[in-house]
Amino acid sequence: MRIALVQFASDIDAAANRHTIAAALADLDGASVDLVVLPEAAMHDFGSADHDLSAAAEPLDGPFVALLAEQARRLDATIVAGMFERTDGLPYNTLVVVNADGELVTTYRKIHLYDSFGYRESERLRPGDIVPATFTVGDTTVGLMTCYDLRFPELARTLMDGRAVPDVLLVPAAWVAGERKLEHWRTLLTARAVENTVFVAAAAQGGDRYTGHSLVVDPWGSIVDEAHDADAVVLADLDPQVVARSREVNPSLANRRMRST
């Protein structure tokens, strides 16, 4: 499976973001990708702490998902991207998955809100129910996590205990920059890959506010490719045989005596 991670810094102008995304995806023409991953909040940035995300939120049949459907059909690829989903109250921080036919096949509403490092995401957004989400691209099972979820290994473990064990974990993110934050980012992504013997692919926002460094980690813990903090596209081929071999050599999932509940 060929994956493309699209790194960019979103704006609080949703129409401008759609234009940016369309232009970035146009550059993937001829790349023969199977899966395209955009960052958390690709539809609309978080903005300042007093910015009204409820007013910015869109329904799942709004212009953002319509753009993804159009681009997915054009690229003949599945697209995953982050948005703020409209509700009657506070919106959800939602990942949407649109397949190559332009169909919305699943959503994941961020479970762990970023009430940390002096910020309170829960004042602006509502947490999703504890319902881990997976989908398939061809024969590959993919699990979903969003940004701050990365700090909670039990979510990744719960995904691994589902009916279909993922070969890949996706982590769209807007990982806020700061002291030691890049070290946390790389370390946690690598840990989730090694302990679950999966590929981990993380599409992050870049720019001045966020850490950037979208990257792919293989099941052995090696970084396959990594961006810096500017706009970028990371392309990688994820071979399921690498996952199978790592689980044969390092059968830590099979050797567990404690399971998530």
UniProtKB/TrEMBL annotation:
Keywords: Hydrolase. One of its GO terms (molecular function) is hydrolase activity. Residues 1-240 form the CN hydrolase domain. Gene3D superfamilies: Carbon-nitrogen hydrolase. Pfam families: CN_hydrolase. PROSITE patterns: CN_HYDROLASE (PS50263). Belongs to the carbon-nitrogen hydrolase superfamily. NIT1/NIT2 family. SUPFAM superfamilies: Carbon-nitrogen hydrolase. This is Carbon-nitrogen hydrolase family protein. InterPro entries: C-N_Hydrolase, C-N_Hydrolase_sf.
